[in-house]
Specification:
By secondary structure, the chain is mostly beta strands. The protein is 7% helix and 47% strand.
């Protein structure tokens, strides 16, 4: 599937528009929010060290690649994946976090608006089976969540040989 077709499917149909393609019989998608429905809204952090965020509210986990105990997505098959991360800052501001692939910063979000703003970044990533993705909140920064404002999602665009 060409990248132009993938982009068109995303714009016209959202991620569901890509399900029709052959993924070698396996579909992979996850979408999680920082706080579970029974947790009160509020800031997460700041912490003295870089911290892996554990997104507790699992909305979608097709293929069971996301582990809600660790906050880590493990690619079940080799492929091209679309990954996105949105973070909200609360009344204290200071949001700075990154999506990590096996310990390497793939992309980040940053927001210093100070009060109740957000940032989003996305990227297509080539992942091998077993590669791990997670979100790291940098030291002395914070992230806010209420009603799924801070989310981490990804899905398989196409398997790779």
């Amino acid at each position: 599937m060409s990248y132009q077709l993938v982009i068109a499917a995303l714009l016209l149909c959202g991620p569901a528009g890509l399900w029709a393609q052959d993924a070698g019989g396996q579909q992979v998608a996850f979408s999680v929010a920082l706080k579970s429905d029974d947790q009160a809204a509020g800031d997460h952090g700041p912490f003295n060290t870089d911290t892996t965020l554990v997104f507790h509210r699992v909305v979608t986990n097709v293929g069971n690649g996301y582990d809600s105990n660790t906050g880590i997505f493990t690619a079940p098959i080799k492929g091209l994946y679309f990954v996105t991360f949105t973070g909200a800052s609360g009344s204290e501001g200071g949001l700075n976090a990154a999506v990590m692939k096996d310990g390497v910063n793939m992309f980040a979000i940053y927001d210093n608006q100070n009060k109740f703003s957000s940032a989003t970044n996305s990227m297509a990533l080539k992942l091998n089976a077993g590669d791990k993705l997670w979100v790291t909140l940098w030291a002395n920064k914070r992230i806010f969540d209420q009603s799924r404002l801070s989310t981490f999602s990804g899905f398989l665009i196409s398997p790779l040989p």
